[in-house]
């Protein structure tokens, strides 16, 4: 549904490499070497990427989804990524991969259209200036959301799978949550409208999106992986 590799290495646009074409405008973040190719570094003050509203970066009711990215930094003060959170639209359905405290642990935060909140919180501190693979997953078939750090599921939580998330008019942000900004490098942000399996998550973590999707990985669930490659455009 969306894939921002940040491999342009220059310019003010973060290209969506999926078939959706949801390019983002870069606000202040600078180009640096990433986990795979290039990436964007955010200063924690006023750097972010903004993707205009699109139905393809929101998830309809009953649809499973997975959010993935690589992060290396010292402070997750706001959202790594998030859709729809704005000061005038907090009651609308939205989602965030964010840190709500000072411990640099990441939470998948979902809010439905009735303003009920659902949180799956990680247990690993990722503000250690080392690369971490961060995944938020919501499985509509089970009603369970989960947070994964470095290929391992850390927490599961119930969520309302009968509602959609990120379906309002708000923008999609990378590196920002309202007026809070993340400090560090973000690489290979991707949105999938499937609940990725553990093997899929580990392949993306180890090989990066482009390499992992180039061939059919051994022992993969071919239906799921085929859908992933279709979204990426492979």
TrEMBL record:
Pfam families from the UniProt entry: Laminin_G_3
Highest taxon of the lineage: Eukaryota
Residues covered by region (Disordered): 1-23
InterPro entries: ConA-like_dom_sf
Transmembrane portions of the chain: none
Protein name, UniProt field: LamG domain-containing protein
Organism: Geodia barretti (Barrett's horny sponge)
Source taxonomy: Eukaryota, Metazoa, Porifera, Demospongiae, Heteroscleromorpha
